[in-house]
Amino acid sequence: MTRRDAVKSLGAATVAGASGTMLLPQAADAAAVSPHAGRLRQSVARWCFARTPIAELCAAVKPMGLVGVDLLGPEEWAVPAQFGLACTMGNSWGSIPVGFNRLDHHDKLVADGQAYIPKAAAAGVKKIVVFSGNRAGLSDGDGIANCITGLARLMPVAAQHGVVLCMEMLNSKVDHKDYHADHTAWAVEVAKGVNSPNFRLLYDIYHMQVMEGDVLATIKANLPWIAHFHTAGVPGRNEIDGAQELNYRGIAEYIAGTGFGGVFAHEFIPKRDGMTSLREAVITCTV
Fold first, then answer.
1. How many Å apart are CA 122 and CA 126, to the nearest integer?
2. 204-231 per-residue burial string, b: 16 or more CB within 10 A, e: under 16
């Protein structure tokens, strides 16, 4: 299941009741995933557990020490709060291929955003993902300039409601062919141009490792523009364990050492039991 397919499936789903909480690991592992352990505020992407009812997912992840659930649509925004959690990133009102890099998309995206942002804020959603859109032959310079123009139109309503729009960088090599914001430097130029505390970047470690590597140096150089992280193993977008090429313990240590106050959210597709893999990822990144 892809993220796009999962989001469509979730949009049609109804909210179900919780079926109980997950037992904590024993001994040292229990301490490692207690709600107040570690310097990183960890979360999990909803679509990776699309088959689990949202209330059941919240009940399961709360004892792991997660602070919330990422990428929820309006029909699920209110559920995490029932479990002492937050919606740590709201889904966009737009789509991945159709974004702010083209002027002819702006009027609809802005109008929809002006309606969507106040509703998200009222539900306690403080960050919303947005997308550049696909290149479709557009130059990098034009795409950056157009994104700045369109996103700047939404900064007043975002500021009024205390919401931060976060552009996600995605790889165009494997998962999102032709996506424009496929390198950190490109997205940083957009952030500099918008020049607002209500616009920041969602740095997906998996996607940027696929496209450019050099993860720690890139984060160090651009951290003031980054408000949110996503994880997944490379290659394959699966568990963040020793079978893939990234040292997530080291990455978590580095980010935590900067005093980063945003959210570090897990967005991998489990190959094994999903909750077991998620618990292991939380332990790995509890630093």
1. 9
2. bbbbbbbbeeebeebbeebbebbbbbbb
Closest CA to 199 of 155, 168, 248: 155
Other CB atoms within 10 A of residue 72 CB: 27
pLDDT digits (tens, 9 = 90+) for 177-215: 999 999 999 999 999 999 999 999 999 999 999 999 999
Neighbours of 123 (CB within 10 A): 17
How many Å apart are CA 271 and CA 237, to the nearest integer? 10
Residue-wise pLDDT for 30-54, tens only, equals: 334 444 569 999 999 999 999 999 9
Out of 4-8, 72-76, 228-232, pick the least confident: 4-8
Per-residue model confidence (pLDDT) at position 266? 98
- Give every CB contact of residue 247 below 8 A, 6+ residues apart in sequence: none
User: Per this entry, what is the length of the chain?
Assistant: 287
How far is it, in rounded angstroms, from Cα 68 to Cα 91?
14
The pTM for the full model equals 0.89
Give the whole-angstrom CA distance, residue 205 versus residue 216.
Answer: 10
CB atoms within 10 A of CB 287: 18
Residues facing 87 on adjacent strands: 69
Q: Are 43 and 70 in contact (CB under 8 A)?
A: yes
CB atoms within 10 A of CB 114: 15
Instruction: Please list, residue by residue across 248-265, b when 16 or more beta carbons sit within 10 angstroms of its beta carbon and e when fewer do.
Output: beebbebbbeeebebbbb
| Integer Cα distance of 252 and 232 in angstroms | 13
Average pLDDT over residues 130-138: 98
Closest CA to 285 of 249, 243, 238, 242: 249
